[in-house]
Task: inverse folding
């Protein structure tokens, strides 16, 4: 589980009944190096099932999430993060929006959640992406900047 104090939401798909959220631990990279990875978790909450699955994301994954938001705006589907190295999700821009969380290669369980998103959901998720980018930019390889 990620410490809520240092977690920043990368995305949130929610209605009054259920939600799928991804939180990123922006306090420090997991392993300093050329490609820095940050601990993250996808949190699914509904009246039927609740679950959390962990993953690690990089700056490249954030760039790819920006492209996914562009695809969703164009009413195309999106799958993120790429590479099949961890849990991932697929989003289909139907009415309601269909978000499927896949826990592979670990348990190979998938949960599909229909979400009746509110007006402005895409813009809010673009702002969340920028907040994560800003939080990560404040981190130096040897620790947070002050």
Result:
């Amino acid at each position: 589980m990620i410490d809520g104090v240092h977690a920043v939401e990368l995305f949130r798909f929610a209605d009054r009944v259920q939600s799928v959220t991804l939180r990123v631990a922006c306090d420090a990279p997991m392993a300093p190096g050329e490609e820095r990875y940050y601990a993250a978790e996808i949190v699914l909450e509904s009246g039927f099932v609740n679950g959390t699955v962990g993953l690690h994301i990089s700056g490249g994954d954030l760039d790819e999430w920006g492209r996914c938001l562009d695809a969703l705006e164009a009413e195309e589907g999106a799958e993120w993060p790429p590479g099949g190295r961890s849990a991932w999700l697929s989003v289909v821009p139907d009415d309601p929006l269909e978000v499927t969380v896949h826990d592979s290669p670990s348990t190979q369980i998938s949960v599909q959640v229909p979400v009746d998103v509110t007006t402005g959901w895409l813009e809010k998720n673009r702002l969340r992406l920028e907040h994560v980018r800003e939080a990560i930019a404040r981190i130096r390889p040897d620790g947070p900047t002050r």
